[in-house]
Inverse folding.
């Protein structure tokens, strides 16, 4: 935890009005990563945006943890495919420009 900004799970729990066990359940499913330090649970500060997306989906669509996991798996695949598509477009533009 030396050089990373971390936020205490209990702090996030209060802020987002979610039980700490919900964060632990997300971590158990591999959706988020929780770090333990001195008998306390922390989440990387740079992962908060991802966490907020999860909480928003769960709340707005009333999804369970398994559904959230499926949606994020699909969203990650879409983002990867978009990145690959953009890369291929750039290559095509490069070769068409010659």
């Amino acid at each position: 935890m030396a050089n990373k900004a971390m936020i205490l799970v209990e702090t996030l729990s209060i802020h987002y009005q979610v039980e700490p066990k919900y964060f632990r359940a997300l971590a158990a499913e591999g959706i988020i990563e929780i770090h333990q330090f001195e008998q306390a649970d922390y989440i990387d500060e740079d992962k908060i945006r991802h966490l907020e997306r999860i909480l928003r989906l769960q709340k707005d669509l009333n999804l369970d943890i398994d559904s959230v996991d499926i949606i994020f798996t699909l969203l990650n695949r879409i983002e990867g495919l978009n990145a690959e598509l953009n890369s291929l477009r750039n290559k095509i533009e490069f070769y068409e420009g010659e």
In short: The mean pLDDT is 91. The longest helix spans residues 65-97. The helical segments are 9-16, 20-28, 48-61, 65-97.
